[in-house]
Automatic annotation (TrEMBL):
Gene3D superfamilies: HIT-like (3.30.428.10). Pfam families: CwfJ_C_1, CwfJ_C_2. One of its GO terms (cellular component) is post-mRNA release spliceosomal complex. Belongs to the CWF19 family. One of its GO terms (biological process) is mRNA splicing, via spliceosome. Residues 298-324 are annotated as: Disordered. This is CWF19-like protein 1. It comes from Molossus molossus. SUPFAM superfamilies: HIT-like (SSF54197). Residues 321-426 form the Cwf19-like C-terminal domain. One of its GO terms (molecular function) is RNA lariat debranching enzyme activator activity.
Length: 537
């Protein structure tokens, strides 16, 4: 028999408006039936007179539901919380304590951390320290059987929680919130995490707690920030949800991924997050590579600033990785067919594909020698993304959507293929279905990964893989273990379901003369010029 879910309510800053809150709870229960618990985060007490609270404290009034609250977030309200280990404040209203774990009779596990972050000693009575967070993590995460907790209650938001997620509105999650809370959420992997203090409502898209294809699938986390009770803007301050304790759930059901799941917002923050340090923004490096200036004399070099170097002893630029031998795609190589190059940036360039599926089939290529997207340095990745976004705008203006794919198998230099598909030909879902269907027919395991995922977290440098990126940002990924059809990406796009040019699935059957290639390249440069971001540098 399936376990009956618990019905819970979570609330943001009450700020002493007890009647408003409990009247609202009564109305909800009258309409929707009874709830098991009310969990309050943020400031339970406010700066208002104590008359209203006295009625609850003395029993004149009573909370309509068992209510658990966090402790003080400022010196003014410390007086209400006499016992740091938790105590009953009034009938049906319980202070959980400074930090700890509450386990209900149902097996529901709730971890709580009261107060705001403090990195100074001695820690004020309304704050928590790195030691508090460390002790909670050690207490819970030290066993090999630990999978996560059901609910995490904190008053501050976790810093960086907006990374990879939907907009958090006016709250800048790179500046607001607590890095210690981020560390705690990373370690505890709560299924639900509630916070407050920012006087706004924010339900972040659920995020995963594992690295796709590298770790076993784990449950997702839902972060929900709640507004203050009775706020005039009518922002949501009360959140109703049902939950079956994870200890009682079927393992497959527990780890089932929501369709809108994103990357973990804290994944890349490094060791500093675990000790509450401020994480500095990365210093900008001055890009100092060279590239060919196609707007002037062919083959003439200029620096990435666009200015010619006149010093007889110029500072040597930091060199990109070098190929082990001749490379057809390193821009400085004599093997490159320069007449196909249509745009050059600081770290990347665009070239028409030789034997392209269409006249405007282009490649995004790094100027230096990199074998795959996984191996690109941060500044190269940034420019690749800029080219991708620019090409999407360019093709959209011409009534097309663009599909990108990379095959890191039997290739030595990254070639990110960009193929435009007329909007009138088919929808994005049709293209996605065509790739999945043809992959199944050829016994290729093509996995769908969320749009916010980073390929670098799925494939290690040197690993062979194939991936497709749709115009929606969705990605399909295949880890190549043995053989892989070299023309698979072209075959799918050339198929009847998409471009309906099956005779062009092999690029060698699509070659044209150099004069024709030069004509197409000139036309593309001219058409692309209004979108060319390199002209702004």
């Amino acid at each position: 028999m399936a376990q009956k879910p618990l019905r819970l309510l979570a609330c943001g800053d009450v700020e002493g408006k007890f009647d408003v809150l409990f009247n609202r709870v009564r109305a909800i229960q009258k309409k929707s039936g009874s709830f098991d618990l009310l969990l309050c985060v943020g400031n339970f007490f406010g700066s208002t007179p104590d008359a209203e609270w006295e009625e609850y404290k003395t029993g004149i009034k009573k909370a309509p539901i068992q209510t658990y609250v966090l402790g003080a977030n400022n010196q003014e309200t410390v007086k209400y919380f006499q016992d740091v280990d938790g105590c009953e404040l009034a009938e049906n209203i319980t202070y959980l304590g400074r930090k700890g774990v509450f386990t209900g009779s149902s097996g529901l596990q709730i971890v709580y951390l009261s107060g705001t972050e403090s990195l100074n000693e001695p820690v004020p009575g309304y704050s928590f320290s790195p030691k508090d967070v460390s002790s909670l993590r050690t207490m819970l995460c030290s066993t090999s059987q630990f999978k996560g907790v059901d609910i995490l209650l904190t008053s501050p938001w976790p810093k960086y929680v907006g990374n990879f997620g939907n907009s958090s509105g006016e709250v800048d999650t790179k500046k607001c919130g607590s890095a210690l809370v981020s560390s705690l959420a990373t370690g505890l992997k709560p299924r639900y995490h509630f916070a407050a203090l920012e006087k706004t409502y924010y339900e972040r898209l659920p995020y995963r707690n594992h690295i796709v294809l590298q770790e076993n699938t784990q449950h997702a986390t839902r972060f929900i920030a709640l507004a203050n009770v009775g706020n005039p803007e009518k922002k949501k301050y009360l959140y109703a949800f049902s939950i079956v304790p994870m200890k009682l759930m079927d393992a497959a059901e527990l780890v089932k991924q929501p369709p809108d799941v994103t990357e973990n917002p804290y994944r890349k923050l490094g060791k500093e997050i675990s000790i509450g340090k401020q994480i500095p923004a990365p210093e900008e490096e001055s890009a100092c590579q060279f590239f060919f200036d196609l707007n002037e004399r062919q083959g003439r070099k200029r620096s990435s600033t666009g200015r010619e170097r006149k010093s007889p002893h110029p500072k040597q630029p930091r060199k990109p990785p070098q190929p082990p031998g001749p490379c057809w795609f390193c821009l400085a190589s004599p093997e490159v067919e320069k007449h196909l190059v249509v745009n050059v940036g600081t770290h990347c360039y665009l070239a028409l594909a030789k034997g392209g599926l269409s006249d405007d089939h282009v490649l995004i290529l790094p100027i230096g020698h990199y074998q795959s997207v996984v191996e690109l340095s941060a500044e190269v990745v940034e420019e690749v993304e800029k080219y991708k976004a620019t090409l999407r705008r360019f093709f959209k203006s011409r009534g097309k959507r663009c599909i990108l794919f990379e095959r890191n198998y039997k290739s030595h230099h990254l070639q990110l293929q960009v193929i435009p598909v007329p909007l009138s030909r088919c929808a994005t879902d049709d293209i996605k279905d065509a790739f999945i269907t043809q992959a199944q027919e050829q016994q290729i395991e093509l996995l769908e990964i969320p749009e916010h995922s980073d390929i670098k977290q799925i494939a290690q440098p040197g690993a062979a893989y194939f991936y497709v990126e749709l115009d929606t940002g969705e990605k399909l990924f295949h880890r190549i273990k043995k053989n892989f059809p070299l023309q698979f990406g072209r075959e799918v796009l050339a198929s009847e379901a998409i471009l309906n040019i099956p005779d062009k699935s092999d690029w060698r059957q699509c070659q044209i003369s150099k004069e024709e290639e030069e004509t197409l390249a000139r036309r593309f440069r001219k058409d692309f010029e209004p979108f060319d971001f390199t002209l702004d540098d």
